[in-house]
Amino acid sequence: MEQLNDRSSKLVARWLLLGVLMTIIQVALGGITRLTGSGLSITEWDVITGTLPPLNEQAWQAEFEKYKATPQFQLLNFEFGLSDFKFIFFWEWFHRLWARLIGLVFAGGFIWFMVRKHFKKEMVRPLVILFLLGALQGAVGWIMVASGLTGDAVYVKPTRLALHFIFALGLLCYTFWFALKLLVNEQQKTVSPSLRKTNLWLIGLLILQLLYGALVAGHKAANVAASWPKINGDWVPASLFSHQPFLLNFIDNKILIHFIHRGLAYIILVWIILWTIRLAKHKGSILFENIKRVPLYLTFLQVLLGILTILTSTGIIPGKWGTFEWMAQIHQLTGMCLLLSLVAMLFLLRKHSTSN
After folding, report:
1. Which tens digit of pLDDT belongs to each residue from 190-233?
2. How far apart are CA 285 and CA 283, in angstroms?
3. Less Cβ crowding at N or C end of the chain, within 10 Å?
4. DSSP class of residue 224?
């Protein structure tokens, strides 16, 4: 029976890790959708009928007419022809299609594992939470898209884009943690309350950093200060709190958002360096020893990519994929990998020993 349980745990964990990979790809597709300005090309949320793209010219024209009624077309893309529309439609359609595939993989896997009796009793509750998080993420995605289809909006609201991104990270981390619970045994963990506490603070700070990265993306604020290390010649820009009311600056003032995003990156870099020095002195399992420097490597890479993203933002050409878009996309993916590496470290660090 124990062997069956071990096999079942490994099979379910692989299924979950497939979901992690598919979610990372989904977030990457979301980044491409944003960078190509494709997010508002599909004006309806048809879960079933929207699976297939238009199959003839008449259907394409009908979709194009719906897009022509949006503020984005009327105020920004009024020169678009049908071929231009087909390009942006593809990325939004593919982003939604991949979300449907994730749903099918999880639903199909759930049914298969249920029939084959691979689920243990303790797996049921996390699986229910997982499905609820997935459904919530889909709903938030549509709420985000709907924010750009009315009034004079030509893009989705940055705050809703950030919310959509953070919910995706939550789903990603929860799935990854669930998989780790099924794959990693207690002997592979190590006890260090202080290192674990720092780990938690770093995760919280990184989530805030990623949230502000999403706000930078939503406001298209990378090129408001396309210089480094200073921000348009200043270490501390004068216009950080130029908006009223005061709190609005933190979600709507592009310079302040840019400043916070950079500042958090430096704080995280220094803190992870110091944390890694402490980790180096702490001996643990082979798994712990193999991955304890990974967050540091990814942080260095993430900071470098952030700098390159800023410096290449001067070369942005609307409607064209260039160096900036590549840098921004890889920067986002590295941020997700950094978050997962910190989650893995948190899983391996225990508050206290389980032996009595």
Report:
1. 999 999 999 999 999 999 999 999 999 989 999 999 999 999 99
2. 7
3. C
4. G
Sequence-ordered strand ranges (E) for 288-351: 349-350
- Residue 347's CB: how many other CB atoms inside 10 A? 19
Strand spans (E) along the chain? 190-191, 349-350
- Residue range 18-46, pLDDT digits in tens: 999 999 999 999 999 999 888 888 888 77
Res 5: pLDDT: 53
Alpha-carbon distances of 80 from 72, 75, 191, rounded to whole Å: 11, 11, 59
d(CA 163, CA 149): 18
The DSSP letter of residue 225 is G
Q: Is the dihedral of CA 337, 342, 346, 349 positive or negative?
A: positive
CB contact at 8 A, 347 and 288:
no
Q: Which amino acid is at 239?
A: S
Structure-token pair, residue 205: 């700070």
At 210, which amino acid appears?
L
Q: Per residue in 129-175, pLDDT tens?
A: 888 888 888 888 878 888 777 776 678 888 988 999 999 999 999 99
| Helix (H) or strand (E) segment spanning residue 324 | helix 323-348
pLDDT for the residue 353: 66
Cross-strand pairs, 190? 349
As a whole number of angstroms, the distance between CA 175 and CA 126 comes to 9
Give percent of the chain above pLDDT 90. 63
Contact partners, residue 255, CB within 8 Å, separation at least 6: 221, 224, 225, 231, 237, 239, 240, 242
Mean pLDDT, residues 239-251: 93
pLDDT for 116 equals 83
CB 262 within 8 A of CB 231: yes
